[in-house]
Amino acid sequence: MASSSKDSTSKVYSAFSLVAAIGAASVAKKALNSSWRAATGKNPPANPADPDVGLSEAVMWAAVSGTLIGVARMLATRRAAHYYAKSTGHLPPQLKKDGQDAKKAPAPES
Fold first, then answer.
1. Domain ranges of the chain
2. Whole-angstrom Cα distance, residue 57 to residue 28?
3. What are the distances in angstroms from CA 95 to CA 47, 53, 54?
4. How far apart are CA 8 and CA 92, in angstroms?
């Protein structure tokens, strides 16, 4: 594949993964807001840093929302990479194998 073609497919992947991540985060946030209301009977904190929000509520909201939205974005980005790889036959240039294969990992130093 020519360099300019790789650049254009790389840009397409970047745009596609960004849109997928934003969409997933939006859906996760809506689901989280509904779940928070159902579980607590209150709206989620609009600004957890506000001193009027209880510390435990602010910490719980930050932990739950950060985790759920982060996982949703990661799953959407992985799905976009899978679709890209299936369409082109290779991973996007931004993604490199990360060496997670234990058989290829260097031996720990003693």
1. 3-92
2. 19
3. 34, 40, 41
4. 11
Among residues 68, 39, 67, 42, which one has the least CA distance to residue 54?
42
Which residue's entry shows tokens 């579980």?
39
Cα–Cα distance measured from residue 53 to residue 74, given in angstroms and rounded to the nearest whole number:
29
For 28, counting Cβ atoms within 10 Å of its Cβ (0-12 exposed, 13-18 middle, 19+ buried), the class is: buried
* N residues, the chain: 110
* pTM of the entire predicted model: 0.70
The structure tokens 């602010």 sit at 58
Q: Mind listing the pLDDT tens digit for each residue in 61-108?
A: 999 999 999 999 999 988 988 888 888 888 887 776 666 666 666 666
Residue 42 is given by DSSP the state: S
